[in-house]
Design a protein that fits this description.
- This protein is α+β, with helices and mostly antiparallel strands.
- Helix content is about 40%, strand content about 20%.
- The protein has a 6-stranded mixed sheet with strand order 15-16-22-21-18-19, with no helix packed on it. Strands 8-7-10-12-11 form a 5-stranded antiparallel sheet, with no helix packed on it. A 4-stranded mixed sheet has the order 1-20-17-14, with no helix packed on it.
- The chain is flat and about 95 Å long.
């Protein structure tokens, strides 16, 4: 073989490329024929070239020589080796810039005589498109293909880049408990299942996994046995991936254990595994989304209902739009008084209800979610419509709902009914207290013997007495058991049950999810039978047990229960001492830049008055620690407390110095005996990214990393002095940063990247933003100002303490201009006075603001109510939103704006951060804007509330003039 390779090499690079092209053509066509015979057909990857050793080295050398020689038509005619070369680079790609890596592997690629860089980059995409057409090659999908139009191809054809293989092994390991024969036989379903579990993984890994079909095929191949051939990957490529995964002990162990789980499932074939055990062959696929569960707590002298929210992420296997909307939209939970923050539904939680859920109203609904996603949530998340609900009291823990609505003699319950419904007339059912509206609650103490008349009374409210057949969990303690008909286990735990009969029985028939029954025999002379249900998938399963008569094997008595199998990654216990601390972020998965510049907030839930340690750690692209800050905090820890902490911590010199080099930030909270929680925020794998650096002269310069593959990227710079006017810049070279700072924006198609530019400290006083009016049409002018504000608001902040100052200065100037356009000349004059007033002078202006809100009685009443509550709203955004809505309700009604709470949220945003309303649905946003322009009292009232709370907060944070420190 070596001599053959040497002989080919002596023919020159063109001959080598021709020989390899023809060899690869035959190989890939044969592979394509096999893959399209599969159901469904599977793609071919360029990494499956089957070249090893000297042959692969020969290909790499020939491509390098062709590039060095100018890559003319003689070489390009034999294009398959170039596609393989690109896939090899994709396999070694670790993020960062792609083309410099190519340039290192093939010197001359990024420059040379008569070298057209954009054209040659496009040729790579053309070659992979031809590969897809001729050989059924894999094609990148979704946002990855849209945003990374060229590099998405070689990375996709790398199957699984080396640096992401560890995460792939971890994903397979953590998902081993949900594997079943159906998933292993259906790569598309397996891919969808795995994607729904990638929430905590790196952004680049999630991007790669977005192509669910390819992910499933790679996963099926990796989960195949050591000696098995996979129909989805050639042996050499599969061995290469497995070898890469085995280089590290943890990933080797993860893959091995995931393969073991898959082998057990394949070998069992869902057949009975022995006496006393039964496997389940289901006729229908159960839902992996578990409906909300209700329970009660005795608080403040009455029963308080709680709703345990389910994990909704499995719904993205039905619609990929689900995850996006869960992260981007606020949510309503029926019976809960306030909206949930964006992304909060991604964490299963237990929430108190102030009112009992109404019939016919969705339990969970996204505020501005699409009709399709809200319908999907409603279909999978429902509660019993009532009018009666039964909760079993337990010796430990809260009363939990008994879905089957049957009681057992000797047990105690709470019976909840809608107001107006009549309870059974029994002496052992007595009214008790509740703190919620719409229902009444009764204490139920079931006697040891229940007569026929009492059974009839219970039946009037849908209750039954269960005494003939008892089914209970045995063995490993389940995660939850209501003592009657509902049991929960974690996936992978054995579902072991005991059946006990009050009547003589030799056999029983067990049916799961309306499948085929299987018959089990009672041990001779024993009234109790033990058995296990195996291979129950994540979700809720209905189990029925029927006792059979000894003579005829006909059903005599029966009992039923509901078994819920919960996913490992979604089972979260309540935050009680000794068990858990939970960390929440808004948005749910913020980038490091969002955490840094205040666009994201964190809060921590846990036992009241608990001290904990919070750490903030910056790491580089290799995971090395660059800087760590430790702080003691009190739990619960609000998003307001986080904002104050970051104002101190993230401005320290040492952490500022590490920020530009950092690729991730980890926030973790820990307390002995309580728990641990962490959140990793990445800088992000973005198609466009700005990098700032300092020249030797001390002046900053900016450079754009463009991974889009497009040649139409435009760059503009906005100055602090004229923040809405721009000048074009060359996107290919370094850009000098003005002395007073500014904003740089890059646009490529629908993609945008913007960064605030750091000023020279001695130039801060030289810059004053000017925002002149450009249109007589007030609506057009307001829309222009909203867009300009959004541009500066959404821009990334660098590690420079003065850049934030410039950003805030511009944002305030644009907000003031917008309010002045709508509110009228008298208010505009007050805004000008504010601009030159100190903190205590701002307080003096509050009386004038109150008077300027409006003259009519309704408007004066609204202004008075706002003024009376400003102190209460200073550090309570939710109270500000709710209180302001109540203050302006009469004015909103007369203005025809509809719901006062929605109008209040819009007005407060418009008066403080107008750029944020750019994310509202355009028709709704423009309707509200027209209403505000018609009734400017609304913006004046909102601005009064915003400026009043800011002024009170500012003066409370600083000493009075002349006071000692």
């Amino acid at each position: 073989m070596v001599s053959s390779v040497e002989g080919i090499a002596r023919g020159g690079s063109v001959e080598v490329l021709k020989h390899l092209h023809l060899q690869l053509d035959h190989h890939f066509r044969t592979l394509h024929e096999r893959r399209r015979a599969l159901h469904p057909p599977a793609p071919v990857f360029a990494l499956e070239h089957d070249l090893v050793g000297d042959e692969l080295e020969l290909l790499l050398a020939a491509v390098r020589e062709a590039v060095a020689d100018g890559l003319d038509a003689r070489y390009r005619a034999w294009w398959l080796p170039f596609a393989v070369f690109a896939a090899e680079i994709g396999y070694d790609y670790v993020g960062g810039e792609f083309w410099p890596l190519w340039g290192q592997r093939a010197p001359g690629w990024e420059g040379g005589p008569q070298w057209n860089v954009p054209l040659n980059r496009k040729r790579i995409k053309q070659w992979f498109r031809r590969f897809a057409d001729d050989y059924g090659g894999a094609e990148p999908r979704g946002g990855f293909a849209t945003n990374f139009t060229i590099i998405a191809w070689p990375i996709t054809h790398a199957v699984m880049p080396a640096d992401l293989q560890r995460q792939m092994a971890q994903l397979l390991f953590e998902s081993r408990g949900v594997l079943n024969a159906e998933l292993l036989a259906d790569p598309d379903a397996l891919g969808a299942c795995l994607v729904s579990r990638t929430g905590g993984y790196s952004e680049r890994f999630r991007i790669l996994c977005a192509n669910q079909s390819l992910l499933g095929q790679v996963a099926v191949a990796l989960l195949s046995g050591d000696e098995e051939e996979s129909p989805y990957l050639v042996r050499s490529t599969l061995s290469r991936l497995v070898a890469g995964l085995s280089n590290e002990q943890a990933s080797r162990s993860w893959l091995s254990r995931a393969r073991q789980s898959a082998n057990v499932i394949r070998s069992s074939g869902f057949l009975p595994t022995g006496a006393g055990a039964a496997s389940v062959q289901r006729r229908r696929r159960v839902s992996t989304v578990i409906s909300p569960r209700m329970f009660l707590r005795n608080q403040h002298g009455g029963w308080q209902p709680y709703l345990e929210l389910p994990d909704l992420t499995p719904l993205q296997t039905i619609s990929p739009q689900v995850e996006q909307e869960l992260r981007s939209q606020r949510a309503r939970v029926e019976g809960h008084p306030r909206l949930f923050a964006r992304g909060r539904l991604l964490w299963p939680d237990k929430v108190p209800l102030s009112a009992w859920p109404r019939p016919g109203v969705p339990v969970i609904e996204l505020e501005r979610g699409s009709e399709a996603v809200n319908r999907l949530i409603a279909e999978h998340c429902s509660i019993d419509p009532g009018p009666w609900w039964l909760f079993r009291k337990r010796s430990v823990g809260e009363p939990i709902e008994v879905k089957g609505k049957f009681v057992r003699p000797g047990n105690e319950y709470c019976l909840v009914g809608r107001v107006g419904s009549k309870p059974p007339s029994l002496p052992w059912i007595a009214p008790t207290m509740t703190s919620v509206e719409g229902v009444h609650v009764f204490e139920v103490t079931v006697p040891q013997k229940v007569g026929a008349a009492e059974v009839e009374q219970l039946a009037t409210v849908g209750l039954a007495v269960a005494s003939d057949v008892s089914i209970r969990p045995v063995g490993l303690v389940p995660g939850s058991w209501d003592g009657d008909g509902a049991i929960e286990w974690l996936v992978g735990e054995p579902a072991m049950l005991a059946v006990k009969s009050a009547h003589a029985a030799d056999k029983c028939a067990v049916t799961v999810d309306r499948g085929l029954p299987f018959v089990l025999e009672f041990p001779e002379g024993q009234p109790e039978l033990f058995f296990a249900l195996e291979n129950l998938g994540v979700g809720t399963h209905d189990v029925n047990v029927a006792l059979l008569t000894p003579e005829t094997d006909r059903p005599l008595f029966s009992g039923s229960l509901t078994i819920t199998i919960r996913d490992l990654h979604t089972n979260r216990e309540a935050a009680t001492e000794g068990t858990a601390i939970r960390l929440f972020a808004t948005p749910a998965r913020p980038k490091m830049t969002e955490l840094w510049d205040g666009r994201a907030s964190l809060s921590i839930d846990g036992p009241l008055e608990t001290r904990a340690e919070l750490s903030i750690t910056l790491r580089d692209d290799a995971g090395r620690e660059l800087e760590r800050q430790l702080h003691g905090i009190s739990v619960p820890f609000s998003d307001g407390a986080w904002e104050k902490l970051t104002e101190q911590v993230l401005r320290k010199k040492r952490i500022l110095g590490a920020y530009e080099e950092a690729e991730s930030c980890e926030v973790s909270v820990f307390q002995n005996g309580v728990g641990f929680a962490s959140l990793v925020c990445e800088r992000g794998f973005d198609p466009l990214r700005w990098v700032l650096a300092k020249r030797h002269s001390g002046q900053h310069e900016a450079r754009l990393i463009d991974r889009t593959g497009n040649d139409d990227t435009q760059v503009h710079i906005f100055s602090v002095e004229a923040p809405l006017a721009c000048m074009a810049q060359d996107p290919r070279g370094p850009i000098a940063v003005p002395a007073t700072g500014g904003l740089l924006q890059a646009i490529s198609g629908k993609l945008t990247a913007a960064t605030i530019l750091p000023p020279e400290p001695n130039q801060l006083r030289q810059s004053r933003p000017a925002v002149p009016r450009s249109s007589d049409d007030s609506l057009l002018e307001v829309q222009r100002l909203i867009e300009g504000h959004r541009r500066w608001l959404d821009a990334d902040l660098p590690a420079d303490p003065f850049a934030r100052h410039q950003q805030e200065q511009v944002l305030e100037a644009i907000t003031t201009a917008l309010v002045s356009v709508i509110a009228g000349p008298r208010w505009a004059n007050l805004e000008r006075k504010r601009g030159t007033a100190g903190a205590y002078r701002q307080l003096e202006l509050l009386d004038e603001m109150e008077k300027l809100v409006g003259e009519p009685s309704k408007q004066r009443a609204a202004a008075r109510q706002i003024a009376r509550h400003l102190w209460q709203w200073v550090d309570a955004p939710a109270a500000l939103s709710e209180g302001f809505a109540g203050a302006i309700e009469a004015v909103v009604t007369s203005s025809g704006l509809g719901d006062s709470q929605a109008a209040a949220d819009f007005l407060l945003a418009l008066a403080s951060r107008p750029g944020s309303v750019a994310n509202w649905a355009e028709p709704e946003r423009d309707r509200l804007l027209r209403g505000v322009l018609t009734s400017p009292v609304l913006i004046r009232a909102a601005r009064f509330a915003v400026l009043g709370t800011h002024a009170l907060r500012d003066t409370s944070d600083r000493p009075a003039p002349g006071a000692g420190r």
